[in-house]
């Protein structure tokens, strides 16, 4: 009936893997990947990682 | 291929259990139909399957009922479980047991991972899923589509990504406001409209006048500031004066947020207005377009007190009622809009506020000014109190505007009263300290050279701090914006990938959807070619499109009825579940035909007959539909949930069709009950047979007793087409001529007229011969033979053929 079943469960990880392949150095993508488990995103952790990134170095001239 | 052999449920949802459902195997069908009235525990079976195969129950989660709602109220610890046995040896028997100590981590035995890996797509659907699909808005319909087509996890991930994006956007908004405030403070110091470069120039000119270097950067300004501070420190009186000046400058930048009181008052007033305009029915404002259209329509109609739909008279003026309702809702909408506006103002005011205490200490730095320490402490205390008050206001402004309460207005009012007191407390303390500082500074300002040095040092020091603050705010904003921009791009990429995936999935099954939809909508001329179109410019938006008499209609619900849209949803689910589940052949259809009328329900049976390689568990509370299923799918196992008691759950009995129930009633010596049951059955069947045989009938809508006419005309038709000696003609004549039939047919619907057991038994026996003669017994067909337009009667599978033969008594 069908040639290849669509693996819904792995959609997120496939997308992440493809995006990281295309842009391995992207820190934002890395932060997304690091806070993702399976299809689940830890919003609080991602937010804190992104906010830490948005903080410029303190005490610069 | 994987089928279910057994499903066992214990202590789960509405089934105290244990309840075992054995599925047929080795026979012609593996499918089961469960009939039970509402509330007998049928849907608990679907819930059990969903929990076993996905680990959660989506429709309960949507209502906020999580795992604690899964066990039956009387279930003992460790006795709440769902177990299933499968034909696939790699899965075997799998059990999931609820653990009351770790409610989100049930204990599993068997190869649960193998089972879940084989169920690529959800294989169960409830009527509720179809109604969601029909009635909801675009985004909500997308969610429903996710359930039907099995992409809930990726959609939930998308929502989580967007949620983070929203928080980041709000953060950027806040930083933007802080950046503006920092700019305003610098302007206040250096002069309105002075750029950052010109601010440096101003510092530079002081530096040059004092014999220092040109200032072209913040670092250079810092060096000059340090040098001037050293010069000040060399003169003790100058150092004292400088300390007092720093204090005065620190006090100058700290002002009580007087505007906040007005904004808070406006919000409280707006909240009260909304509450007065029936905030508890805020969703009613969605009716405004409908009521506006009704008002417009009624303007063109005549006859007050006459319903424009049915033409009947009623009390009152409909237009007046519509206009009144419209005015109320518009008032409510205006109040809600006003509230949103006031709230936005308050939010902006709060976003620009920094903590007074922090700002003051930051401006003061490590300076210990030579002032009255008691007055300085009073300022610090007042600033702290005011900061606490503002912080409470911040917490209050995050209220839910759809659930405004008395306590919210009370809290707003109390802060509205507390805020002026805190503001004036701070201003009083500030003024007292300023007066003290001013008095002391006058004593020290006797030497103009010293005053000039202190003033310049102070100007450079404060200017440097303000420039740094602004730079930090601008940098923070730029960094947050950059993060948001890149993050937003990534999220958009994910959304695009999702939409593409969903569209691909729909394209993959579109032919099957069309086929299923055409079966379900066989009786609707001109309707077909269903499509799902995703709106690429929106996150989660889907519109339905159909072709109606050659024209594409979008959105489809403009033209389609509820049941037609349900057909659409059912076609999408069945196509997805069969296409994307190549290994798991099991399907649960839980009350999916509720909106289908009696003409449409047989079409679902036709559709199910086309998926014979599947194993179906079909549940219904509709007895008419049940009887149709029993008759049309004779090889399916039948189960009946007869009654329900809280402690014991459903009473599970074998399902009996109407003929079997007639026989049961006769066996129980209940001839009246048997007669009534048989009458309903024969009336239905005779109508269907007469339609298939193209029997000419005189319609009489007042005739309650149609059995006699139906049988008589069928007998005439059979004699005409098959001959008087054909077995069917003979069986029909035998029944029609029997005195038991004549007596029964005249009284079968009259409870007061008793019938004898033997009479009903004779009618039943004779009728069963007729039914057997016209029904195809081939598995997957089960249809009544129909006139072929020539001389015979054939079923759709052509295995059963009734025709005139030369040999007398032979029915061919």
In summary, what is this structure?
The complex is a heterodimer of chains A (about 60) and B (about 800). Chain A is mainly alpha-helical and about 60 residues long.
Task: Please provide the count of β strands of chain A.
Answer: 2
Sheet/helix structural class of chain B: alpha+beta
Class based on secondary structure composition and strand pairing of chain A: mainly alpha
Mean pLDDT of chain B: 86
Tell me what portion of residues of chain A adopts beta-strand conformation: 5-15%
Q: Which outline of chain A best applies?
A: flat
Order of the strands making up the biggest sheet of chain A: 1-2
Tally of contiguous helical segments of chain B: 25
Strand content of chain B: 5-15%
Low-confidence stretches of chain A: 1-9
Radius of gyration of chain B, in angstroms, nearest whole number: 41 Å
Distance between the termini of chain A: 67 Å
| Number of distinct beta strands of chain B | 17
What can be said about the biggest beta sheet of chain B? 6 strands, mixed
Q: Termini of chain B, distance in Å?
A: 40 Å
Quaternary class: heterodimer
Number of H- or I-type helical stretches of chain A: 3
